[in-house]
Design brief:
It contains 16 helices and 13 strands. The chain is α/β, with parallel strands linked by helices. It has a 7-stranded parallel β-sheet with strand order 3-2-1-4-5-6-7, with helices on both faces. The longest helix has 21 residues.
């Protein structure tokens, strides 16, 4: 099976769950003997690229130049995929070229789009290019339903495939040490430090509320992003730096080591898909305290059983739930085990097998369909349209590229 993934984020931190998903899936497919290629743009961080290449994944960062406009990128991508005779093209995260290339693919190439989050950045292009997508995947049940209800995707072409994550074994769970009464309650935020969707700045009032609850705690912030300095300044301003550890980005093995030492994880988002950080935390016996929003969070977290749900922005509510956990060791043990049991339904092995099977079915179905004609005149989606002529946009792109080259020089 020859699969090609298009993703614009693998070299551009801060990385999110979708990037982790891509690395885990492609590395596992390569390990199973599949031929896998990831097409992306050059960027400032090649750590994910190096990880994939070490696992046998081919990564192409040279299909596009900085001077190429989106429609040129799409033409080059489609021409290369057609030439390679790929079985399936997967649009994971792409603001432009991955979608624009769909009408230009040979009839033999099956297509898939993965919707990672509950928002217009995914729904709008999917709806526009629905007729060229053989399978649209929602990572949560609610996203899967919206794909069908709002994006012109027939039920037969929609799939729910949740993320898969590494997990502790039962014996490893049983070996996790219980927290002593005199130890601080260890709470984590794991993810991008950005305000949009993630509401990372809520970590500042959360730490203040935790301090007001007057119980020993540690807040472990694992991740990076544009709000990091403001968050650190807020912790200092509220005099909670002694209780906070800012880890920055950690490698996957380092994250898993930290998870073994944590009691609870908080997610403060106002919109989500199915947070990979939450699933991996639960699979390591960490209790989730999350916002009560539609999509993956409330599909997985059952109030008072394997975690807690709190209204968006209610930091007093978050702090209250965490304080109650910190004061009840029996509840922590019980909910920790339930969180781990929930995590077992989201195995990495199962996810990889499901995608592998989906690719095979899509490729076979495409071979059985009549020849389709390329639709080179299909209009581009609204976000890629411009009122300016091609030559003027091209001139601007050259000027910008030249300016960046001078700065780097």
């Amino acid at each position: 099976m020859r699969s090609v993934f298009v993703d614009a984020t693998v070299t551009m931190p801060p990385f999110g769950g979708a990037t982790t998903f891509l690395a885990e899936l492609t590395c596992a497919l390569a390990d199973r003997g599949e031929r896998v290629t990831v097409v992306a743009r050059p960027g400032g961080d090649d750590s994910v690229v190096r990880r994939m290449m070490a696992a046998g994944v081919e990564v192409r960062l040279d299909l596009w130049r900085a001077t190429h406009l989106p429609e040129q990128q799409a033409q080059r991508l489609a021409a290369w995929v057609n030439q390679e005779q790929a079985d399936v093209l997967v649009v994971s995260i792409s603001p432009d070229a991955g979608w624009l290339a769909l009408p230009l693919l040979d009839q033999s190439v099956a297509t898939m789009a993965v919707v990672h989050a509950d928002g217009p950045a995914f729904y709008s292009p999917l709806k526009h290019y629905a007729q060229f997508v053989d399978c649209a995947v929602g990572v949560s049940q609610s996203i899967h339903q919206r794909i069908i209800d709002e994006c012109s995707i027939p039920p037969a072409r929609g799939r729910y495939i949740p993320y898969g994550v590494p997990s502790l074994s039962l014996s490893e769970m049983q070996e996790r040490p219980e927290r002593n009464a005199d130890q601080p309650f260890r709470i984590a935020y794991l993810g991008r430090l950005v305000q949009g969707h993630k509401r990372a700045l809520d970590l500042i009032p959360l730490a203040e509320e935790l301090k007001r609850q007057n119980f020993p705690f540690e807040l472990h912030v694992i991740g990076d992003g544009e709000e990091r300095e403001e968050i650190a300044a807020g912790f200092k301003r509220n005099n909670v730096t002694a209780q906070v550890k800012m880890w920055g980005w950690l490698s996957p093995p380092e994250v898993r080591q930290r998870l073994k030492e944590l009691d609870a994880v908080v997610l403060l988002s106002d919109s989500e898909g199915l947070p990979l950080a939450m699933l991996e935390s639960m699979a390591h016996g960490v209790i989730p305290v999350v916002t009560k929003i539609k999509s993956g969070l409330t599909e997985v977290v059952r109030e008072g059983e394997n975690g807690f749900q709190v209204e968006v922005g209610d930091m007093a509510g978050f702090a209250d739930r965490l304080a109650r956990l910190a004061g009840d060791r029996e509840q922590v043990s019980r909910m920790r085990l339930q969180a781990w049991k929930t995590g077992q339904a989201f195995s990495l092995e199962k996810m990889v097998t499901t995608y592998q099977d989906a690719f095979a079915r899509l490729a076979e179905a495409r071979r059985q369909q009549p020849v389709k004609h390329l639709n080179r005149d299909y209009p581009v989606m609204a976000s890629c349209r411009s009122r300016y002529p091609f030559w003027l946009r091209k001139l601007k792109r050259y000027a910008v590229a030249a300016g960046l080259a001078r700065e780097e020089g």
